[in-house]
Amino acid sequence: MSTTPITPPASAPRSRKPSSAFGVRQLAASLPDAFRKLDPRVLWRNPVMFVVEVGAALTTALAIAQPFLGTAAQTAASPTSLAFIWSIAAWLWLTVLFANMAEAVAEGRGKAQAKSLRESRTSTLANRVASYDAAADAGAENSELQQIASADLTLGDTVVVSAGELIPGDGDIIWGIASVDESAITGESAPVVRESGGDRSAVTGGTRVLSDRIVVRITSRPGETFVDRMIKLVEGASRQKTPNEIALNILLASLTIIFVVVVLIINPIAAYSNAEQSVPVLVALLVCLIPTTIGALLSAIGIAGMDRLVQHNVLAMSGRAVEAAGDVTTLLLDKTGTITYGNRQAAEFAALSGVDAETLATVAAASSLSDPTPEGKSILTLATEQGFTFPTTVDGTVVPFTAQTRMSGVDYADGSSVRKGAGSMVSAWVAESSTLTDAQRAELDAIVTRISQVGGTPLVVARRDTSGVASVLGVVYLKDVVKTGLAERFADLRRMGIRTVMITGDNPLTAKAIAEEAGVDDYLAEATPEDKMDLIRREQRGGNLVAMTGDGTNDAPALAQADVGVAMNTGTSAAKEAGNMVDLDSDPTKLIDIVGIGKQLLITRGSLTTFSIANDVAKYFAIIPAMFVASYPGLAALNFMGLHSPASAILSAVVFNALIIIALIPLSLRGVTYRPGSVSSILGRNLWIYGVGGLIAPFIGIKAIDLVIALIPGF
Amino acid sequence: MNTTLLFVLQLGTLILLLGLVYRPLGDYLAVVYSTQKNLRVERAFYRLIGVNPGSAQTWPVYLRSVLAFSAIGVLALYVVQRTQQILPYSLGLPPVEPSTAWNTAISFVTNTNWQSYSPEATMGYTVQLVGLAVQNFVSAAVGIAVAVALIRGLAARRSSTIGNFWVDLTRGVVRILLPLSVIAAVVLLLSGVIQNLNGFQHVTGLTGATQTIPGGPVASQEAIKELGTNGGGFFNANSAHPFENPNGWTNLFEIFLMLAIPVSLARTFGRIVDDHRQGYAILSAMGIIWIVSAGLLTVLESAGNGTASQLAGGAMEGKETRFGIVGSAIFGTTSTLTSTGAVDSMHDSLTSLGGGLVMINMMLGEVAPGGVGSGLYGILIMAIVAVFVAGLMVGRTPEYLGKKIGAREVKLASMYILITPTLVLAGTALSFAIPAVHDSVVKTSMANPGLHGYSEVLYAFTSAANNNGSAFAGLTASTPWLNTALGVAMLLGRFLPIVFVLALAGSFAAQEKVPTTAGTLPTHRPQFIGLLIGTIVIVSALTYLPVLALGPIAEGLK
């Protein structure tokens, strides 16, 4: 039995640190792709740039034909020299090329990542269990194994993977436990434990088993594995236009149509005044007016947005999800791990009167023996620290904690049992066979309230003896530690109009104390998965967009229902399937970053659109006087930039129009700076920089270019 | 009195008057279009036409009702004009010539009131009263109805309907336009506007020359002409005629009438969407454009062109001395910023840049405050475009009043914005591009050669496509080409935008409202008002600069 990796494993963890460095090297590398994208069949998808390409082709044709037409073509009132036409043609081609380069550079960054992912994919051999029988031979120790290529594995196949082998495909562990090196996917070199059952059973194809032996049921079809999807995503191959991008494209196309009309009607009217323009001049005007800047950068901005997520080790299954992240108005945050450090520590045994501390401590410890959670372990630690002794083996059935019962314990062989858990659930369990006296109930409530009010988690401990009489022994105080710096982040979110809701299984009092300490807007206490689902539906009915994180199988419906569902990579495949993003670091706090990235994507699009449209004003002031000054000398008054000649003015506008694309590529890849703040301040800032700046910048740019062009003979 | 003081006083009076009616009239309009109660006369009318006033329409049904009603209006008006010789009170006038009749029918149904003819010499009293006056009322009511439908769409949640057109139309006429125009007519009558059925009076003057003095039911026509932003004059000279507009006070009152409903609709809007601040924001954008434009025109006309006008204290050619520069400038600005198109001075005689400015007023899309209804829906469309770009800049899917601006909404708003400029530009260009038409336009229609003649044509298409109706009076528009082409421009310029507005209303009505949070782009603050004005100005400036450069700008910078 062996699984032979044909290619060397991806050993070193890959760095996903933002590589915003953008230089000549990247531009040069993107050139071949940029030329390939000149194909009109590809370009027509971008109507703005397609118009530029048609204009470029037309001008080139005219430049070629000019010498053969003699003086016939030179009757127009505007510049018609051959050098001028060739210059316009050349710069129009460059405009298209620059736009293609922007897209190619954005795609190029993903390609490097895709390459290393691809190395971990293909050509693994898998040990398929010929006929798996879970009951008779769960570990597939005696079953017949077939060696097949991993690419041939299909949904439902069962494979065996041993230490040192690559896992051949995505799946769930159905038998065994193993430590797995997932660095190929997550970049994180420390191995993680994966085991059958529970929420840590999912394994990803291409990761390596370091110890032990596991049986895995394949859960993905060939070509649709997690790695396959990841490759497609980072390459941008499966990129579809997002709703806002479609809307923006419509606006840009409409502006383009208006300007085509504006330019088409110039000559019929100008002919009346004997101010007819040559075709290259009209093409130049058209290209300067249509929103080429944003048209050129739009898809690069989208690709770069996905890429920024990847740099944060988050995989979005669609661009739509990234955009939705920017729109989120309600964030559901699990308390544990997100708001608090997760590991609550037992801090005190509070026994009811008539119960001695030792009884409480030993029962609590006994019920925690088979409880693998840090909380359970901390109870054992506290009991030991306080000098209590307790048996170290369990003689009975372990009742594990579930989200529905919210308690755990042991049913002993002698008929007695112990439980610890949420107050309401344990009380209900006690009430099944016995009733508490009012005094006991009052005392219990007092303790629970005291602990809850300080933000602790009260864990009620109860015992049912062999005769079936149940009693509450006391309460374990679990201390919850809120992460530092969260309050400020939530305040930021509030100013952005995002409400934070803390989800916890704790009782309302505990939840309230922690919610206040952390600064969240609301909380959902004693939450079952159904409550969570209801909350999401309720928020959505009110028109809110909801984001949440989750990892368990029981989170899957809520993850699917939420507008942005971020599944933790450590979670089950059901959760990963249901969510529309996967966080490879499994850090629920990252939800806040994801929202920021979504907003930044939209802001970048909006800002560059504003910039692009504002630019038109200056271009008009360059081109309109240049076109008509020969017929109406009075229009020279509009040429307040003092541009050298009509030919140089028009060419300067075209050159500026092309160069601004290159100049803005880094910005579109990096994204417009986004600082959480009030909407008015964000809008004000961007209006100043990209609106007013967009009005002024081209005046300076065109004048500067004109100063250079004026030096060229013939202009 | 010096010009500045006069300007401030006149504008101040208008603002005061408008301030007085803004809340009561706006709120009254909101009640009229929201209440479930019907008047007896309305119920009788609903029974007559077989409409259930309680049933609301989806947007396609609402649209079909608008189009069907307007089509019948065009047909009826055409027939009345073509058969006027057999109608009473025809004053002995012959049937109206077909191309003029078609142009006029469209013109009045589209609330344009472009007149390619001389009314007192073409239309008898029956045509004026039964044909034109009826359309003055109903075309205005259609405009308000469409605007109210859009407001309802913005205010609704998950609704498939946007109101009932027949109810909106009836209430607009019965409860708003009729009573208001009666009051306005009485005021005008008391101020010296004539109202009779005297026909033509032939008198012999002191010098022995005979004159024919027309009479007519002018005051009643004048009231609805301004109130419904129609603008079709009883006389060819329109509001420059002393029988229509006898003095400075009536001049100011007529300006007020043009503004009353379009301005108050901002209040109605705020009230129905349950946020008065939104109404004030729209009002502010409208007001700022109006004040700045009126001020600019006053400055340009006061400065005049050349020495003759400077000696006269301003460009007085084509202006009435009883109104002066200021009265004429504010009237001209208001008439072109609303879709009225009435004139108390000849726009052909404005200074070159002044003439360009009144053209720009119309090119802004007539949104400050615009025609009755059409002004409000026009500025709301611009607000949607402004919100779209600005909304992206704050990192949210853009939304206006809790309604998301998605691909469908942007598509409809873009189409709306595309229509009018395309009609203006294509119409003007075709007038020069088609050889046979070129001859007719240049040799017959244009009163002036060169740049000014071209401006007359550009003005005509701008006025028609924007449903304004005013003219650079020098143009002879009763040629087959201009009658036809301007008719098409008016028709498409009115009803295609209405198609998109109603589609938007339907699309908004179906949406759930997104709750307002701190992350929502506020659309009531000065920041947004500035953005809205900027969007309106930039969009039209970018579209029209080249054609303006070849006309008024080239002429003005000579």
Automatic annotation (TrEMBL), chain A:
It holds the Pfam family E1-E2_ATPase. InterPro entries: ATPase_P-typ_cyto_dom_N, ATPase_P-typ_P_site, ATPase_P-typ_TM_dom_sf, ATPase_P-typ_transduc_dom_A_sf, ATPase_P-type_domA, HAD-like_sf, HAD_sf, P-type_ATPase_bsu_IA. ATP binds at residues 371, 375, 401-408, 420. It catalyses: K(+)(out) + ATP + H2O = K(+)(in) + ADP + phosphate + H(+). The chain crosses the membrane at residues 48-69, 81-102, 246-269, 281-304, 620-641, 647-667, 687-712. The keyword Hydrolase does not apply. Mg(2+) binds at residues 551, 555. The system is composed of three essential subunits: KdpA, KdpB and KdpC. One of its GO terms (molecular function) is magnesium ion binding. Belongs to the cation transport ATPase (P-type) (TC 3.A.3) family. Type IA subfamily. It is a multi-pass membrane protein. GO terms for cellular component: plasma membrane. Its EC number is 7.2.2.6. It is found in: Cell membrane. The keyword ATP-binding applies. It comes from the Bacteria. This is Potassium-transporting ATPase ATP-binding subunit. Part of the high-affinity ATP-driven potassium transport (or Kdp) system, which catalyzes the hydrolysis of ATP coupled with the electrogenic transport of potassium into the cytoplasm. This subunit is responsible for energy coupling to the transport system and for the release of the potassium ions to the cytoplasm. PROSITE patterns: ATPASE_E1_E2.
From TrEMBL, chain B:
Belongs to the KdpA family. Part of the high-affinity ATP-driven potassium transport (or Kdp) system, which catalyzes the hydrolysis of ATP coupled with the electrogenic transport of potassium into the cytoplasm. This subunit binds the extracellular potassium ions and delivers the ions to the membrane domain of KdpB through an intramembrane tunnel. PANTHER family: POTASSIUM-TRANSPORTING ATPASE A CHAIN, POTASSIUM-TRANSPORTING ATPASE POTASSIUM-BINDING SUBUNIT. It is a multi-pass membrane protein. The system is composed of three essential subunits: KdpA, KdpB and KdpC. Keywords: Cell membrane, Ion transport, Membrane, Potassium, Potassium transport, Transmembrane, Transmembrane helix, Transport. It is found in: Cell membrane. It comes from the Bacteria. GO terms for molecular function: P-type potassium transmembrane transporter activity; potassium ion binding. This is Potassium-transporting ATPase potassium-binding subunit. The chain crosses the membrane at residues 61-80, 129-151, 172-194, 249-269, 281-303, 323-343, 350-368, 374-394, 415-437, 484-508, 528-550. Coiled coil: none annotated. InterPro entries: KdpA. The lineage of its organism: Bacteria, Bacillati, Actinomycetota, Actinomycetes, Micrococcales. GO terms for cellular component: plasma membrane. The keyword Nucleotidyltransferase does not apply. The gene is kdpA.
